[in-house]
Design a protein that fits this description.
By secondary structure, the chain is mainly alpha-helical. Helices cover 40% and strands 0% of the residues. It contains three helices and no strands. 6% of the residues are buried.
C-alpha cells in the first residue's frame, strides 16, 4: 500500500541561547583599550565571574569583534 502525503515535513530548528550571551558586553570592553585582554585572559576572568562554558566560543566571538573593530591583521600579511 502506498500513501500520499499532502505536504512535506517542515524542519523547525530549536534556538538555544549561548552561555556567553550574558558576558558579550564585558568581552567587548576587555578587548578594547585600556585592557586589550587576549582570549585566554578573558576566559580566566570570565570563569571567576561564573562563566561555565569553554574557551572556543570566546575565541569565535572575538573574531567577530575584531572584524567589527577593524583591529585584525589580514591573512595575506602573514603569507610567506
Amino acid at each position: 500500500m502506498f500513501f500520499c502525503v499532502a505536504e512535506p515535513p517542515v524542519y523547525h530548528r530549536t534556538f538555544y541561547s549561548s552561555k556567553l550571551e550574558d558576558y558579550k558586553e564585558l568581552i567587548i570592553e576587555w578587548r578594547c583599550d585600556p585592557y586589550s585582554f587576549n582570549g585566554t585572559r578573558m576566559f580566566r576572568e570570565l570563569k571567576e565571574k561564573g562563566y561555565t562554558g569553554s574557551i572556543g566560543p570566546i575565541y569565535r566571538f572575538l573574531r567577530k569583534v575584531d572584524e567589527d573593530v577593524g583591529n585584525h591583521i589580514s591573512k595575506k600579511a602573514t603569507v610567506r
